[in-house]
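Listing S7. Sequence submitted for prediction.
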Amino acid sequence: MSAEVERFFSEQSPLAAEVASFRPRAQQREMALAVAEAIRDNAILVVEAGTGTGKTFAYLVPALLAGGKVIISTGTKNLQDQLFQKDLPMVRDALKAPVSVALLKGRSNYVCHYHLARTESDGMFKTRDDIKHLGKIKQYAKVSDSGDKGGLADVPENAPIWMQVTSTRDNCLGQECPNHKECF
């Protein structure tokens, strides 16, 4: 795998052919080789690198080349979205790797049909915005395939109403929920 990683971070890189702005960086190649070695040896690796090093590609390339299952956890949803929507498809295409990916978020990122109905019937709203947002969330829940609150641009992700219409591990009814079959 080291030779493949080396090739990927060279002037003749498949990524260089895909992305005009790609430039090989020594620190990026070094990090990628360390990641590849850690994967090969089933070892633990901790890497610290500055902005502009190319950390994302440095761990994605060996991870995808290894061919196994990989979990990538990010510190922010913005980075998660960038990885899923931009970086992963770009690297996957450059490598011509038949890799399937899934985006996983915590349950508090998804509308809960039970809590949505309960909130609507309770009628306990703190602001007019809550009422307005609830209507938009209700409509969204009817047409969305995922229920991901990030897919509803009309309601800010930090709107207080989200806490009332999503669930947590503590308040999810699981299989006992009357809406279990419709659960996102």
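Caption to Listing S7: primary sequence and predicted structure tokens for the chain studied. The chain has two domains: 2-95, 107-182. The radius of gyration is 21 Å.
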